[in-house]
Amino acid sequence: MHPGKDPTTDPVTREIHFDLLAGRIEGTLTLPDRATGIVLFAHGSGSSRFSPRNRYVAAVLHRAGIGTLLMDLLTREEDAIDEHTAQYRFDIGRLTDRLVGAIDWLGQQPSTRDLPLGLFGASTGAAAALQAAAARPDRVRAVVSRGGRPDLADEALAQVQAPTLLIVGANDEPVIPLNESARQQLRAPSQLTLVPGATHLFEEPGTLDEAAALAREWFARHLADDATRDAETTPTASS
What we know:
Layout: E1 12-20, E2 23-31, E3 37-42, H1 52-63, E4 66-71, H2 76-85, H3 92-106, E5 117-122, H4 124-135, E6 140-146, E7 164-169, H5 176-185, E8 190-195, H6 207-233
Parallel strand pairs: 3-4, 3-5, 5-6, 6-7, 7-8
Antiparallel strand pairs: 1-2, 2-4
Helix pairs in contact: 1-6, 3-4
């Protein structure tokens, strides 16, 4: 908890939407009082902003004074089709375009435009998060992937400038080498952390808590570093 924060003050939450040619994308924006940063969540593999795992991670960030935007990357129509065909969840370009749109939107809102921004990606959403970080290097200050497929970000990996944490379950054997390969392609500071006892969905007791704590520490460190740099470089009026 940050000094001076009132633990009894509930974060302010509101539903938002983006109108696109393909339809409407919906999201949930939550801002704690005097937020020190904001994290945009990128869901994948048929998940939505109502994912209990990502909502749990978001709540951990809120208690650390970090705001969140949980958004669906597919329209309701696309999601209904994807549930049966899985044709959209691996469309990384589509997911990335919508994340970039959300990043730009956050940069235009009075309540969020000055907050250091991080991205949290799960499953195929991790690849979209990394591609979006490469597309907006001046805005994205930190990336965390949980059980993600960063390898699907392809050549964008080498263009990411934000410090990147890859969290993988130690028992998620098929995904570990994919994350190791992706980390080797990253030129930004990066770390791969295996959570003992965890499989792909972090359903084992205590494993999601560990992943959430890792994400909180990564964002708190790197978003705070960015806020400090901004304060140090902001001109002050002479007396």
